[in-house]
Amino acid sequence: MNGRLMQELEELGGEIRPASLKKCDQILIEQPGFSAIIALWGGHLESFIPAGQEDLLFQSENLGGDGRFERRHFGVPVCWPWFGANEAQADYPAHGLARYFRWEFIEAGRFKNGDVKIVIRLASDNHPLIEEMWPQAFELRQVFRFSSKGFRINFSAANLSDQPMPISEALHTYFNVSDNQTAEVHGLEQVSYVDKFDNGSRQLQDGVVTPCGPMDRVYLSAPEICEIQDPGFQRRLVIQTEGSQSTILWNPGAEIAQQRSDMEDNDYRRFVCVETANALSDAYFIPAGGIHQLKVKVRHKPLTSN
Predict the structure, then answer these.
(1) Mean pLDDT, the chain, whole residue set
(2) Which tens digits make up the pLDDT trace of 168-209?
(3) Closest Cα to residue 269, out of 172, 173, 179?
(4) Rounded to whole angstroms, what are the CA distances from 278 to 85, 189, 223, 272, 294?
(5) When you count CB atoms within 10 A of the terminal residue's CB, does the N or C end of the chain come out lower?
(6) C-alpha span between 146 and 201 (Å, rounded)
């Protein structure tokens, strides 16, 4: 890593530190109004803690297995270029490739208004295993924007091949909640969804979503804004998306959580996944030489505020 990049990171109150996850480094940012951690393994935004608050993101203490395609449940995993199981290759890992490789830290600085900027990249031609599993060349970038009010992620995917690239995807955000039984998701009322826990049946959301689990729902043609209301933490998490047609809600519930080796038995009580996505009928193609952007903006507010 070049000296200028390290100097720019240090000027932001940042540092690179070793981490146990796949023996890969983390980027740590400390500011008066917040702290943030980016895990270069998988390009996860791992943690975002506003001053005086609980983390906005959940991290399981279960680190999962040591294999490349073993998962850990935390932060904002990138599911790309497929969401869920690979329909053509049953032995390929769930949720694509991007979350299973080391990303490259390429930029640190500030936006004009003073927000912190961190940029990381994943290029397929740097990873022979990616080229073996996915023949079309690509470059992914994530631009993270941090302030005391919250964070933004601008995820962009460039198709560097001469053929259209089929994509389903998600920014699979694990939001930290005080209790999934009392948390509520607002903004999806009267939106149609596919219920994957009910054999893929089509349902219509009746009222707010609560309790938040067990559930695995793909809300199709979803609105750009929804929010989590958390009475235990006395806050609202306002989630705004762009380039996303689907919103996915996931929580495994007690029975499935206890069956998983990569999750602690009670983890399910402490998170709600609200995913910025394009899945099922909202999947799409990136044209040859084209770029697609998927964006999410998360703001925290007191529960009683407008």
Answers:
(1) 94
(2) 999 999 999 999 999 999 999 999 999 999 999 999 999 999
(3) 179
(4) 14, 19, 13, 18, 9
(5) C
(6) 39
Cα 76 to Cα 45: distance, rounded to the nearest angstrom: 5
Instruction: Say if residue 65's pLDDT is above 80.
Output: no
Sign for the pseudo-dihedral over CA of 158, 285, 292, 128:
negative
**Measured between alpha carbons, how far is 189 from 168 in angstroms, rounded to an integer?**
24
- Nearest-angstrom CA–CA distance, 221 and 150: 25
Query: Can you tell me the distance from the alpha carbon of 217 to that of 195, in angstroms, rounded to the nearest whole number?
Result: 5
Query: What architecture does CATH give domain 3-302?
Result: Distorted Sandwich (2.70)
For residue 122, the one-letter residue type is L
Task: Write the DSSP symbol of residue 33.
Answer: T
What does the domain layout of the chain look like in residue ranges?
3-302
Q: Which two tokens stand for residue 95?
A: 């949720």
What are 13's two structure tokens? 């109150």
Side chain identity at residue 208, one-letter code? V
Rounded to the nearest 5 degrees, what angle is found at the Cα of 227, between the Cα atoms of 243 and 176?
100
DSSP-assigned beta bridge partners for residue 224: none
Alpha helix ranges (H) inside 12-163: 128-133
Mean pLDDT for 107-133 is 97
Confidence of residue 68 (pLDDT cuts 50, 70, 90): confident
Predicted confidence (pLDDT) per residue in 213-260, tens digit: 999 999 999 999 999 999 999 999 999 999 999 999 999 999 999 998
Both tokens of 265, joined, read 């038995």
* CA 69 vs CA 65, 80, 93, 121, 126: distances in Å: 8, 14, 6, 19, 18
DSSP H or E segment with residue 286: strand 284-286
CA distance 240 to 59: 22
The CA distance from 105 to 117, in Å, is 12
